[in-house]
Amino acid sequence: MRSGCHEKRLLEGKVNWEIQSVRGGKVTIRFDHTPHLTEERRGKQLRCVSCHSQIVQGQHLVVTLDTCFLCHFKGLEWGRNETVIGGCKGCHDAPKEQIRLATGDFNHAEFLNRGVTCENCHSDSVKGDGAVPVQFCWNCHNQEKQIARFGETKFMHQTHVTDHKVECSACHVQIEHNLTAGAPKFVSTTLANHDSLLDAGSCNSCHEQTHGGPVELYRGVGARGVPDMPSPMFRSQVDCIACHRAKKQSSDAAAVVGQTFVAVQDSCNYCHGTKYESALDTWRQMIATQLAKSQDGYDQAKAAIAAANLTPFDKLQADRLLDDAAHNIQLIRLGHGVHNVNYSIAALNVADDRTREAKQIAAPTTQGSGAGP
Q1: What is the pLDDT at residue 332?
Q2: Relative orientation angle of helices 312-335 and 341-366, to the nearest 10 degrees
Q3: 358: phi > 0 → left, psi -120 to 50 → alpha, else beta; which?
């Protein structure tokens, strides 16, 4: 550090650093210079310019957030497990004011006091893994013997960072960190944009086809004859892993077939305490009962249509009604209606209405010769 300018900076220790959020608000980051400058981080000794590396007109050696994110998040797991260096609350506190959501006011303290972790809801706050693609090396080097040392991490950092002062971002893929970094198509959680939350979220990025039905139900779309009705959890920006926390496979089985996380009552209790005690089983039973009723009605209507001697026009009308009913029943069964109970019941009620209408079309020809024209 230059004598006369910064010799006391190390002694100041903790400082509060205020930055602007992606939504236009202010975020305060707690930072302590002492451990960063006196202790190795990831096996490397940092210098002032490790973070203060950007020269911006009118400012003096601005801190590069990309460097902070790279060190704190690279190679670590986020989502169900908090393994970020320092933890979320190591850098910033949860908001103390009431947050206005589509479902009402939200108070972080109520949940944090019960031990709910930040990443349980904010699992999509990180995007990018900070990797170094080997092809990046060819941007500066053109000899095979240089590229051959790509895997020698200590040598690479010594040569590039320590000896030649190359910025981290010159080689590492950028890591983004904010409330919606992992969902780049996020615009808002209004009904007009309710599909954006899961567009690039943790589960849907890999399981778009496998879990298309559950995602549609959670978003409150996909059923016929029912207006869009997003789940309250969806409207509150809660994503898949907040509920899907329990491991389905044992460790031995998971090594072969992979791990699946299922929703259990403990997931509800983890956030809500005893407010929804036994609710998951109740909802599942409610959906199962309604599904069985709707399926039975559909089967009866289908049999009645098949037995009836309908005109081509009436047959077309009846088939369209049955197709709507079958679609809704299939969606709720395969999409697991518990993802959005109110929407699922509404969709099955529409299915029941469609099957009744279809049976009425067939009724005049199945009740005897004098029953109809």
Answers
A1: 96
A2: 150
A3: alpha
* AA letter at 139: N
Q: For the CA atoms of the chain, what is the radius of gyration?
A: 29
Residue 125 sits at φ, ψ, to 5 deg, of -90, 0
Residue with structure tokens 């199945």?
A: 366
Q: Which residues, in sequence order, are CB contacts of 55 under 8 Å at separation 6+? A: 61, 62
Q: Any idea which residue has 């941007």 for tokens? A: 139
Angstrom distance (rounded) from CA 41 to CA 33: 12
Residue type, 109: A
pLDDT tens-digit series, residues 160-182: 877 887 878 888 888 888 877 77
Q: Are 159 and 103 in contact (CB under 8 A)?
A: no
Please, are residues 191 and 219 in contact by the beta-carbon 8 Å criterion?
no
User: Cα–Cα distances in Å, from 32 out to 3, 135, 177, 284?
Assistant: 21, 36, 20, 49
193-242+278-373, what's its fold?
A: Butyryl-CoA Dehydrogenase, subunit A; domain 3 (1.20.140)
Helix (H) or strand (E) holding 31: strand 26-32
- DSSP labels for 160-202? IIIIT---GGGTSPP-EESTTTT-TT---SSGGGTTGGGSSST
Torsions phi, psi for 26 (to 5 deg) = -120, 135
CB neighbour list of residue 304: distance below 8 Å, 6 or more residues apart? 358, 359, 362, 363, 366
Is the whole model's pTM more than 0.90, yes or no? no
pLDDT in tens, 77-135: 666 666 678 888 888 888 888 887 767 788 888 888 888 888 777 777 888 888 898 98
Q: How confident is the model over 61-90, as pLDDT tens digits?
A: 778 788 888 888 887 766 666 667 888 888
Q: What is the pLDDT of residues 33-67, one digit of tens each?
A: 888 888 888 777 777 777 877 666 667 777 878 88
Domain map of the chain by residue range? 9-131+172-177, 193-242+278-373
CA 124 → CA 105, 160, 188, distances in Å? 21, 32, 14
